[in-house]
Amino acid sequence: MMGLRSLGTVVLLFTFALGTILAQTSAPGQVCESKNGTSCEECLQNVTCLWCIKTRKCVTYPVRTILPPHALCPLNDARWGLCWLNFQHLIITLAVLGGVLIIALLICLFCCCKCENIGSSRFAAKMERQMNKSKSKQEERRAEMKQRHDEIRKKYGLSGPNPYSRFA
Predict the structure, then answer these.
(1) Tens digit of each residue's pLDDT (9 = 90 or more) over 122-133
(2) DSSP of 57-117, one letter per residue?
């Protein structure tokens, strides 16, 4: 039941947005006030109208104030779009859905950043191991080359002091 209400609220929001865009431009105040004394369903056929259950009046929705003022109609008695959904429930539902969406977005951002940092630290550790491995191989090759050069010098008798060093 709660899932249907949430779905109904989302559909209602899209209906409001679309209805506001497609609203009639010709004197909406006269259209709404002419439906006073009728039913809620009759009044809400026009998206610019607001039905107040307490006074049973159909009035033009005050778009400048976003929410209808209490003097016009209390939020609990105001209906817009659907007769079974009042503004109080709409505001609470939208606040909860907005909070859930913001929390979900923050959790996703946190998880993505954390996973990225873990991945980059793993990558850095892997690069460090490869660098250490290549350094050790290079040191081994240098030691082998030095040993081979020393053997060649020894074989040809060049391992002693350099005879040309006294001219320097």
Answers:
(1) 788 889 999 999
(2) EEEE--GGGSSPPTTT--TTTEEESEEEEEHHHHHHHHHHHHHHHHHHHHHHHHHHHHHHH
